[in-house]
Amino acid sequence: MAAARYKLGEFCWTDLGCKDAPAAKDFYSGLFGWTSKDYPMGDGVTYSMMRIGSKAVCAIYQMTPEMVRAKQPSAWLPYILVKSADDVAKAAKRAKGKLEVGPLDVMEYGRMAIVTDPGGAQVALWQAGTNPGADLEGKPGAMTWHDLNTPKPRAAGPFYTKVFGWKVEDQKFSRGAYHLFKLGREGICGMWPEPMKGLRPSWVTYFRVKDCAKAVAKAKRLGGRALMGTTVVPGIVRFAVLADPQGAVFGVLQPQR
């Protein structure tokens, strides 16, 4: 699988664990025009690669009965590319994070772990094997940005700088402040200074769209809802935060540059 090139410390993948995978595939295919290719992963789990043309952009899978009994919500989980999942998992624990899963091998595709930051948001670590990440990013229908929704930005900021080597740059806009995470000189994701009401601590994955308002309207017609309607940062971006019919939160983003 030929993939887009990602630097260590960048988001390289995202997947959705949900209670009704066929319904989720229908919703997102209707919204973004994705097609799917299913891969059996053992123990009755099917991992559906969602694609634009022949390019994989993310995945959707059905949660196991154990996950459902544990009352895990349907949610998107983004992955950050690392050199060693084991080493970064240890670094996350030293930085007051919590190791939730792994590290473990995902066949020949790579090695992963899931950690929770001090504010309660989960993120996955991905040590690439044969699969270094999504084939497309930053294109319509593909993953393009991530924002951290956290009740503890003062704790979360230092966690990510220690674990992934990011830097935090505070920015101010007409609608308020924003914390930009940078890898070197490049902004790669951000953190809201205050948590969104009703949204648990989490990373919000944004998918690029050609027209934000039309994407929001289409998501509503397909059974989704808007948690934050079309919001404009003049000259930079139009974006919205949505929930799919099963409650999984994601964003749509239309660059203005």
Tell me what you see in this structure:
The chain has five helices and 16 strands. The chain has an eight-stranded mixed sheet with strand order 2-3-4-1-5-8-7-6, with helices on one face. The longest helix has 12 residues.
Q: Could you outline the blueprint of secondary structure elements for this entry?
A:
Elements: E1 11-18, H1 21-32, E2 35-40, E3 46-52, E4 55-62, H2 65-69, E5 75-81, H3 85-94, E6 98-106, E7 110-116, E8 122-128, E9 143-149, H4 153-164, E10 167-173, E11 176-183, E12 186-191, E13 202-208, H5 212-221, E14 225-233, E15 237-243, E16 249-255
Parallel strand pairs: 1-4, 5-8, 9-12, 13-16
Antiparallel strand pairs: 1-5, 2-3, 3-4, 6-7, 7-8, 9-13, 10-11, 11-12, 14-15, 15-16
Give the topology string: H per helix, E per strand.
EHEEEHEHEEEEHEEEEHEEE
Tell me the fraction of residues in β-strands, as a range: over 45%
End-to-end span in angstroms?
31 Å
Strand order of the largest sheet: 2-3-4-1-5-8-7-6
Task: Indicate the overall shape.
Answer: globular
Radius of gyration: 17 Å
- Poorly predicted regions are none
Largest sheet: 8 strands, mixed
Q: List how many beta strands DSSP finds.
A: 16
Helical segment count: 5
**Helical content class:** 10-25%
Estimated structural class: alpha+beta
Average predicted confidence as pLDDT: 94
What is the structure about, briefly put?
This protein is of the alpha+beta class and 257 residues long. It is 19% helix and 46% strand.
